[in-house]
Amino acid sequence: MLVEKCPDKSYEPTNYEIKAYNKWVKADERARCYILASMANMLQHQHQSMITIYDMLESVKEIFREQNCVAKNTSMKAFFTTKMVEGTSVMEYVLKMLSLLNDLEILGAVIDKESQVEIVLQTLPDSFPQFCLNYNMNKMDLSLTKLLNELQAAESIIKQ
After folding, report:
1. How far apart are the C-alpha atoms of 120 and 158, rounded to whole Å?
2. In this predicted model, what pLDDT tens digit does every residue of 109-140 receive, in sequence order?
3. All structural domains of the chain with their residue ranges
């Protein structure tokens, strides 16, 4: 409700429209006070003259948009360039990749589940070619969690 612009007052509003408008104004004012109180002094000073929460949120989004872009690029690079080192635990590696994917999702990046699995498979060391071949030949459809379980089973066989 408050992430939208203030509803317009019509020329001859109905009682319902008046109540809805007054409710919106009261909620907006309360939220504005809470948000201003929780901001750092510099941001607080910049935003105290703004009339609505909507205006404040748009301003904050604009301020942090560039930082978000840099963070997303950094996380993308880490995700696409991370390779599992031969001899390390496949569980640790997949959990690291899941963490990077979680960071990317929080930053607004969208990578479909199939591509996530493919990227993890592409970054496995040379000791997993049989697993990758089996995955592709059987056209397996795995989530990252199921892939982790399968990779752990394969890892225990490879170690033997």
Report:
1. 18
2. 889 999 999 999 999 998 888 899 888 899 88
3. 15-64, 82-159
d(CA 25, CA 4): 12
**What is the C-alpha separation between 18 and 155, in angstroms, rounded?**
66
Residue 30 structure tokens: 């309360």
With helix as H, strand as E and coil as C, how does the chain read? CCCCCCCCCCCCCCHHHHHHHHHHHHHHHHHHHHHHHHCCHHHHHHHCCCCCHHHHHHHHHHHHHHHHHHHHHHHHHHHHHCCCCCCCCHHHHHHHHHHHHHHHHHCCCCCCHHHHHHHHHHCCCCCCHHHHHHHHHCCCCCCHHHHHHHHHHHHHHHHC
**pTM greater than 0.70 (yes/no):** no
Q: Answer yes or no: are the C-beta atoms of 124 and 89 closer than 8 Å.
A: no
CB neighbours of residue 27 within 10 Å: 13
Write out pLDDT tens, residues 12-31. Answer: 788 888 888 888 888 888 88
Angle (nearest 5°) at CA 33 between 7 and 49: 70
